[in-house]
User: Fold these one by one.
Assistant:
Number 1:
Amino acid sequence: MSKLEQINITYDPVQDRLLLKVNSGEAGEFRIWLTRRYTEMLANLLVEVMDKAGGIQDIASHHDTINQLKGGAFDKDYAWDPDSATGNQSSPLLPLGPEGILGFRINYTQSDDGNARFELLPELGLGINLALNRTLIFMMYNLLEQGVAQADWNIHFPQQHKDPVH
């Protein structure tokens, strides 16, 4: 997958699922549906990775994370422009199809450059590959928390912050 530009998670009450959209610019938009079970599995893995990287409080107070937050990381509306991805309006680039895929399994590895590599996969076929540094892992975790709050699934997040980090 090419360069990550933006990630968005929204709750769909009809599906009773979260929709993860990954904007990768010229490579298009990748969509994956997250069930309650899959969301818990992903959240637990993100916490495990954050714990290995110093813990959520350390990551949250790191200057890279603070700069991202001050730069409006959570204030920007999700904006994927299919025209910029394909060069025309008639066929937006959606490599996993317009409906996306249903998340079923997750593969995780740590790369030599220190980034965490996640493969978010359906039961069969292709999925989404994400290489995230510790700041982006923290951001992804926060997006999951926000999505679960919209869904009202009553999921207990292992590192749920009681007090605001910033």
Number 2:
Amino acid sequence: MNTWFLITSSLGISLALTLPWIYYLYKQNKDLRQQLLVNNDIVTTNITLEQQLRIAHQQLEQQKQQLSQCQIENKDVMTSLTQLKTERQLVQQHHREKLALLEDAKIKLAHEFKSLSNQIFEENTGVHIKSIVEIALIT
């Protein structure tokens, strides 16, 4: 019975020594699994952020190209605007010159009309005077 006691005692001691070790390993395994889940979440978040960053860079490049295109178009529009302003100034100057010519023509025409009306009046007055003189002579 001594052997049996020795065997059971050594098994009991072995179990007594290994059970805490097994519990410690179980606890470590549980902690490591939990940390692995947290790490997986971090990796997933990191991948998502990298994808979002890649998309943001692509959008930034597209916006840079659009900005460059808009700047070129703006330059063209500003050039056209400058040309149109110059053309408008030339047209306005041309119209001012025409108005000045028309004003001169109006003044000249008014003088000419006045001169003609005076001439007609003088001729008519002369005819009437002759008629009055002739009538006076006849009577």
